[in-house]
Amino acid sequence: MAILITGGAGYIGSHTMVELLEAGRELVVVDNFVNSKAESLKRVKQITGKDFKFYEVDLLDYDALNKVFEENDIDSCIHFAGLKAVGESCSKPLLYYHNNITGTLNLCDIMQKHGAKRIVFSSSATVYGNPASVPITEDFPLSTTNPYGETKLTIERILKDLHAADNEWSVSILRYFNPIGAHKSGLIGEDPQGIPNNLLPYITQVASGRRECLSVFGNDYKTHDGTGVRDYIHVVDLAKAHLKAIERAETVTGVEHFNIGTGVGYSVLDIVKAYEKATGITINYKITARRPGDIDECYANPTKALNVLSWKAENNIEDMCRDSYNWQIKNPNGYEA
Ligand code: NAD
Ligand code: UFG
Question: What is the pLDDT of residue 126?
Fold first, then answer.
């Protein structure tokens, strides 16, 4: 039996594929390359020496997705496919609602039809909105501040309702904190299009000379140095959590939510220092205005993932910075030749 990976060509999907293939799992992968390149899939094969079936399919194309299930014995799915840029979701809400929610509705309907009732879903710490305190546990109140976050929360609710209606479903909702870093081989990593929105890809491009200076968005937050604090997690640790989640979903039915973070918060300036220490390169930065919508602090209590999934993050912040840089220098233009 195979695991369907939606969005497998993307940043987190490609790293997860490596872990699953190395664990001997059979994979079927779909992606429409709206935010990725086919090259990442070639690199996954290069790292693992293993093969998998791939379909260039949009989740919005019901018939094409249904055909993937007709042609393969799929019993579970790890569902990464979705659009993820917070700013763009505010300017194009309909695109985000349609792609992320309709895509998931199609997927779940087809899974149900084919008796594949096991799903691991990529949610986000964004569903905690502006948390009243940190660290965050899974039972914190949920809210969102943008259409992207709204799609994550809505999908979480859809999956809960699906299980309530048919308790054969096994639903594992992974709420990722801030994934960074890259595979140690330097063959796969994050490949943002245009100017990076997120901190680590931006710093990495400053380190490699592709950008001049990092803008630190505000230094008057309620944190130890005034800059925003987040829970950065190595993407390979995050990828490993998916293997644990699938193994768990194979033994229990129900709906479970897990924070996938390290439990440690780092400020923007802590990250700049860690990056400099890991690479020996000075990062030019300037303090600028706050970015609208940003919160002071966000970090996980990941104890539930440890207790239930036997998973915990193993890489430290310097590993994350070093591996980001290694990917960047080996691939100065990402997956572009
Ligand atoms: P990514 O953009 O690199 O990967 C997503 C993949 O899904 C891409 O390859 C894209 O082409 C594909 N895709 C999108 N819409 C599709 C559709 N309709 N049909 C088929 N394929 C489609 O993003 P990522 O960083 O790997 O994130 C994976 C998942 O994790 C996303 O759901 C994202 O929202 C979630 N997430 C990411 C972060 C983060 O910081 N990277 C944090 C929390 C949650
Ligand atoms: N930051 C800068 N300069 C930059 C980019 C970011 O100072 O150029 C700061 C931000 O203000 C924030 C911190 O760095 O304090 C982290 O910002 P990111 O954009 O890297 O990450 P966010 O925490 O804002 O958001 C990320 C994902 C969201 C997801 C959220 C929680 O982008 O999709 O984590 O999982 F919802």
Answer: 98
* CA of 148 relative to ligand 2 center, distance in Å: 14
**Measuring CA to CA, which residue among 314, 302, 266 is closest to residue 135?**
302
Active site residue 11: no
pTM: 0.98
| List of residues 6+ apart from 242 with CB closer than 8 A | 16, 19, 20, 78, 120, 174
Count of Cβ atoms closer than 10 Å to residue 58 Cβ: 17
Mean pLDDT of the region 306-311: 98
For ligand 2, what atom is nearest to the CA of residue 84?
33
Is 87 within 8 Å of 145 (Cβ atoms)? no
- Mean pLDDT for 289-303 is 96
Q: Is the pLDDT assigned to residue 19 strictly greater than 90?
A: yes
H/E stretch holding 122? strand 118-124
For strands 214-217 and 285-288, give the pairing: parallel
Task: Find all residues with CB under 8 Å of 16, minimum gap 6, and list them.
Answer: 5, 8, 78, 80, 238, 239, 242, 243
Radius of gyration from C-alpha coordinates of the chain: 19
Question: Relative to the alpha carbon of 196, which ligand is closest?
Answer: 2
In ligand 1, the atom with minimum distance to the C-alpha of 84 is 34
CA angle, residues 203, 11, 98, in degrees to nearest 5: 110
Q: How far apart are CA 108 and CA 11, in angstroms?
A: 23
Cα–Cα–Cα angle for 37, 283, 198, nearest 5°?
40
Q: In the sheet where 53-56 sits, what is the strand order?
A: 53-56, 27-31, 2-6, 74-79, 118-124, 170-176, 254-260
The residue whose C-alpha atom lies closest to atom 27 belonging to ligand 1 is 12
Q: Is 319 exposed, middle or buried (0-12, 13-18, 19+ CB in 10 A)?
A: middle
143 Cβ closer than 6 Å to some ligand 2 atom: no
Distance in angstroms (rounded) separating the CA atoms of residues 94 and 215: 30
What pLDDT is stored for residue 337 in this prediction?
A: 73
Q: How many CB atoms lie within 10 A of CB 72?
A: 18
C-alpha–C-alpha distance, residues 266 and 261, integer Å: 12
